Amino acid sequence: WVPAQNKDYIVRFSLPDDPSGAGGWSPLVTDSQPWFQLDLRDRMEVTAVATQGRYDSSDWVSSYMLLYSDTGRAWKQYRQEDGRLPGNMNSEAVVQNKLSHSIRTRFLRLLPLDWNPSGWLGLRVEVYGCGYKSDVADFDGRSSLLYRFNQKSMSTVKDVVSLRFKSRQAEGVLLHGEGQRGDYITLELHRGRLALYLNLDERDDPRLRSSGGRSVAVSLGSLLDDQHWHSVLIERFNKQVNLTVDSHTQHFRTKGEGDSLEVDYELSFGGIPLPGKPGTFIRKNFHGCIENLYYNGINIIDLAKRRKPQIYSVGNVTFSCSQPQLVATTFVSSSASFLSLPATAAAAGSEEAGFSLRFQFRTWNADGLLLSVRLAPEPQRVELQISGSRLRLTLHTSAQQKSQVSTGHNVNDGLWHSVTLDTRDQQISLTLDDEAASAIEPWQQLQAQGDFYLGGCPSEGCGHPTPAAFQGCMRLIHINGVLMNLLHVQQGSLGRYHALQFDTCGIRDRCLPNYCEHGGQCSQTWSAFRCDCSGTGHTGATCHNALYEPSCEAYKLTGSSSGYYSIDPDGSGPLGPARVYCNMTGELAVWTVLDHSSSAPVRVQGSSPQKPYIMRFNYSASPEQLRAIVTGSEQCQQEVVYRCRKSRLFNIKDGTPMSWWLDQAGERRTYWGGFLPGVQQCSCGLQENCQDMNYFCNCDAATNSWSNDTGVLSYKDHLPVSQIVIGDTNRTGSEAVYRVGALRCYGDKSTWNAASFYQESSYLHFPTLQAELGSDISFYFKTSAPSGVFLENLGLKDFIRVELSSPSAVAFSFDVGNGPAVLTVKSHVPLNDRQWHYVRAERGVQEASLQVDQLPLRFLEAPADAHVRLQLNSQLFVGGTASRQRGFLGCIRTLAINGVHFNLEERARMTPGGSSSLCHNRGRCIEKSSGYVCDCSQSAYGGPSCREEVSVSFDSESSVTYTFQEPFSVMQNRSSQASSVSRESSRARENVAFSFLTSQRPAMLLSVSTFSQQYIAVILATNGSLQIWYHLLADQDPDVFVPIRQNLADGRLHKIRIHREAKDVYVQVNLVATRHCRDPVHREVREAGLRGFVGCLSSVQFNHLAPLKVALLHRGSSLLSIRGALEESNCVALAESATSHSLLGKGPLESPASSRRSARTERGACSGRFSPSEAHPEVPGAAFPGVPRREQERGCGTCWRASEGAREGGREGAGLPGMPQREGE
User: Fold this and answer.
1) What is the percent of the chain where pLDDT is above 70?
2) Highest-pLDDT range among 266-270, 691-695, 954-958, 1042-1046
3) What is the pLDDT of residues 887-898, one digit of tens each?
4) Which residue ranges does the record assign to the F5/8 type C domain (predicted)?
5) What are phi and psi of 208, to 5 degrees?
């Protein structure tokens, strides 16, 4: 049994779920504002509250508000989401509410909000928690505690300060310490917020520290002068600081050059005493209570209570918290709240003519009536109101005449303001806070008549139109110097009221946390907040929606032409817009151009490796924006023009770089051209056309004449160039001229990223949607189905879903705990017309919206003070549902959620059955007026969807050589000399894929080689096993990998995939994947090279290139060297033919040539074309390891050889890895 108090009634009631006796609390039916209060006898830590209805009755409470207080006065509402806690649906079931954050209190009050409509209110209550003890100190505004160190100064690299406080004032110092070198730490209440000032060894004017002129490192919290406890935690390690106030944390780096905080002599708590003047303080002292004050694990208040010598007390510090008697009332309605006090209360004990009124108020509203008083003689009246954030006093002398005076600014700032109105001394004076009084001088003495109406005035009381009622709090109401007892008003013994809450100030800061995104400025009224999105590049209720398109390609789709544009690469994500130039003059590519701070040519002289010339480039976008633009583009490039005279890029003796550039991550790079990190070479070295072939760069020859080493960088992961360093222009006559061009990117990888769904049970799944407070979902769809779910994510009760609900309607539905909400946009034409349609759905804390194509936008406002957090716990389903019912049939592309683009194509490839990308095998989807086509130019396949294999049959007379124009990662110069100075962090990698069919062994399937004796070779050994040779280090033996030892020269089709990442090689043979290390195999590659290859090769892909496809479609390309007769074939058909021969008992397939004509199929037409880079002139031929450098063929090539095709010699024939030219022949 637990005693409880309801106003003047003491009742006893049974515990929840204990039917042993009847009981419970039920108020009188005549009680218009019932509440139920518990006294826990001491402060406790409450973690949960459970309720039942009244025993064996139809009385229960279905929702209630929970308030708490230390003293039984000045109540505060416990807020959890919408502020109301769910109650019971019958009289016997127990409903327990676990508090998301515990409360430490003595008194609890339950305020019923809803109850059984067929019965009445009834409650049984149980409270869960534990005891709470604390060390408390009370500061009266003129006192402080000093913690003195054992030595002169204390220097720390790590600090932890924790405390809890409650305050009667909005200003006051909680903590202060400073040192002679300029370090300081100050924790201070300022305008009801907590400000932390922290400096580590940054020299500034000490006068600023004493006058409060220093800059605020961080400010957190709001309305902290509410006479309730607030927790504070400061954690510092070196310069990193975390400040936590209640449940809000802010992270920041402190100013200054040092990592330690050096404080001299002492730390002060509660104020900043003036040295040498006891009792004199520099700043306003803290007035309130502090408990559990710990500094680096030391209990300061406990030391003070035990009178330890480390603690010195200034002024009157007591160790119990005094109880305030400030009773406030809350005006909750902007149309109906008022407080009426009789005029007789004003005249009591006063013989003086006129009246005076004094009170305090706080509000967020810019307008509202504070006071209305009728005067004698009539029809005069006085009105005091907030108007446009100012205080305005109006004296109405007649219906047409009035006098006005205004004072103050921004009085709706949420702080307490004091107002005094005095009509004595033949004038009406108005005083606000500490400002000078403003006055109106009437022609006669005024006397109040009737009642004083505060906060509002009902029509029967005023008889004339009045401004909107006041929403906010009032306290300390004095009439003629007499304090009005608001508890008497609540009990009905004084005045009248409507729509008020007593003994509590219900103000809350709706801008904490700040829901305005992208730097939007939050402002608020009593019941709502709004965001000013000016200058953010975003719009919407919370500045969530991007104003600008995400890319230049998106602008072109809207019909825009070339020019400067703002693009937002992550849409509604955290990044802002960036200014770029969009070049749309090309037929295929749309270029995004980003300039930097130094685009003109620069001449450099007098630099050395010890004191190099350094130039940093500042781009028109932030590093984060640059990263997003580069990542979202298909290709990027940046030209580096470099002209020199007697200025080297590399030390010719040991290969040490003398000049270099830094990439976007600040890593040093020493290659000067190419789309993958290569060797320490320039473009002439990569193309084998340097002026002096003994060097890899023209400048390294260090001649007296001007040389040029201009190159184009096109490896996306390293772009853009952030800095250039030049270090060899200090010799006589030595100089260099450079120019780093703009960053240029083209292609939007997300625009045509698509997936198709051809079964209702198909779907793609992604991790749970992170959208607690808001989300925007956008995509395009195309379908002929009448309905289907585009997207769905479920929680225990909450959900979010976007669907085609009918052939002409899209529906957006969700539930965040307030019941399902549905937005529907209906089209006057069918949406299942097999055309692309755009959908954008957004849900935020204030509103939800749905847009379909260019149809009118539909909005739905969120209910006030309701649930706002979307709680999801399952996977995100795209194109279907968790139940695999009502799935979508059709295509979805360009899916983005909160600015993050989802890779549908990649997920479709990983998902078995039911869904696929529109274009396969690296094909790129391109929109056309009547649909889409697949660009297969970077795919080894052809056909409308890039699914048809491209095959070539080889005989002993035929060969194909493809010459690369730029280096790739395997071709890195890792000589013993260069490796010691090259520390580039990139991981070399390549991807190789092809299919083959042959009966020959050994056989050379594929080789890639360079002039520097590096190579990759994929062969069939003498026993028919697959071998992969890597020779990357000139001074070491090759690495050989044998993924499978069975005979693959069996006349059947075999599919090979090879991926190398640094030292790891992953090989997949006929869908069986393995990871391999070095295997000692010897001269097999020589024998394979001598035999060449006879058979069928299909769908050959090396990184982004498809050499066989180029050989078939662009035989006139100067990049190709073709010998012998090439005929298009079909390896699959040949394999099936070989199987048929085997089944009929015939011999193995001897040559694919005999089946070429029967196996040939027509090539599928491909949209787009294969366009090799035009950055460097092509050079025919292939490289030959082991041949002197001047005699080698320039460039690097991918080769398919027969032995007959190799006998013609170096420039037209094939080099065999690992052996000299003559031996290879």
Assistant:
1) 81
2) 266-270
3) 899 999 999 999
4) 1-130
5) -70, -35
Do 243 and 221 contact (CB within 8 A), yes or no? no
Amino acid occupying residue 455? G
Query: Residue 227: CA atoms inside 13 Å, Cβ hemisphere, count?
Result: 24
Look at residues 981, 936, 989, 967 and name the one whose alpha carbon lies nearest to residue 1112: 936
Distance CA 776, CA 896 (A): 8
Query: Binning pLDDT at 50, 70 and 90, where does residue 254 land?
Result: confident
10 Å Cβ neighbour count for 932? 18
Tokens for 1166, please give them: 């491909």
Six-digit token pair at 1053?
A: 């089709």
1201 closest CA partner among 1039, 1044, 976, 1019: 1019
Q: Do residues 263 and 129 touch, judged by C-beta distance below 8 A?
A: no
Tell me which DSSP letter residue 1011 carries: T
Helix, strand, coil percent content, the chain, rounded in steps of 5: 10, 45, 50
DSSP 8-state secondary structure symbol assigned to residue 285: B
**Cβ–Cβ < 8 Å for 271, 314:** yes
- Report whether 765 contacts 880 (CB < 8 A): no
Beta bridge partners of 914: none
What is the C-alpha R_g of the chain?
40
CA distance 1098 to 1075: 24
Identify whether the C-beta of residue 907 lies closer than 8 Å to the C-beta of residue 917: no
Which H or E run contains 417? strand 417-422
Cα 406 versus chain centre, distance: 46
Residue 153's H or E segment, with its range, is strand 144-156
In contact, 500 and 329? CB cutoff 8 Å: yes
Integer Cα distance of 919 and 923 in angstroms: 5
Q: Yes or no: say if 1070 and 1013 are a contact pair by the CB < 8 Å rule.
A: no
How does DSSP classify residue 59? B
Q: Are 703 and 645 in contact (CB under 8 A)?
A: yes
What does the block give as tokens for 411?
């009085």
Q: How many helices (H) and strands (E) does the chain have?
A: 16, 89
Task: Give the residues across from 429 on adjacent strands.
Answer: 422, 439
Predicted structure pTM score: 0.72
* Whole-number Å distance between alpha carbons of 817 and 746: 44
